[in-house]
Amino acid sequence: MLAVIKKELKNYFLSPIGYVVIGIFLLAFSSLFYLTTINQSSINLTYLFYYTAFYVLMFIIPLITMWAFAGEKKNGTDQILLTAPVSMLGVVIAKFLAAFLLVFIPTICTLLYFGILSFFEVPDVPIYLTTILGFLLLSAVYISFGILASSLTETPIISGIITFAIIFIGNFVPDMIESLSKLSLMDHFVKFLYGQIDIASIVLFITLIILTILITMIIMQRRKSLK
């Protein structure tokens, strides 16, 4: 599995994708840090993560995951992947972890903003940590959705559109249809912004990640058996 992770990271960082993704994240974080914190004379970083989760992830996650499996098919390297001496579950997890790292790196860079604010007044450390936890869990769920979408098509662009649609619907539809409000992942994420480590929300996020990874594994295993 480690070999697949290394391969995925090479694919990200030997091409512009990895640098573009991290650059967009840092640009978005910096812009929102100025608009929601510095410009408002606040030491609260929760709005920074809320707007990033609501708007930025919708565009970044499809860009990260669209090539996961669809790109392998398009480039003709899926045969190597399907015959590799690694279980299909290991392959899916490796791709998930590699994509997650592209979110984790810029998220950890927000410690810089925390340090800047500490020169003026120490921000609420527990709220900052729970916000980071919630943001990473939500990102992980979206990444698992994106990898699943990539396993369903041979075209990366279509995979990206499917992932974008899933996140878009998940963000906006529950707010428009009251009966679906309990399905909103953003509502679960908001609890973390208030410093709440909600066990039910954590279980939901982890369950969705595991379930989606298993479905992706089943799809790819079936494709492997048909080869």
Question: Can you offer a commentary on this structure?
Answer:
This protein has 227 residues and is mainly alpha-helical. It has one domain. The chain has eleven helices and no strands. The chain is globular and about 60 Å long. The two termini are 21 Å apart.
Structural class: mainly alpha
How many structural domains are formed by the residues?
1
| Structure summary, number of beta strands | 0
What order do the SSEs take from the amino end to the carboxyl end, as H and E? HHHHHHHHHHH
Beta strand %: under 5%
Largest sheet: none
First-residue to last-residue Cα separation: 21 Å
Number of helices: 11
| Shape, principal axes of CA atoms | globular
Average pLDDT metric:
89
Helix content: over 70%
Write down the Rg. Answer: 18 Å
Poorly predicted tracts of residues: none
How would you summarize what this structure contains?
The chain is mainly alpha-helical and 227 residues long. It has helices at residues 2-13, 16-38, 46-65, 70-75, 78-82, 88-108, 111-118, 125-151, 156-176, 185-193, 199-226.
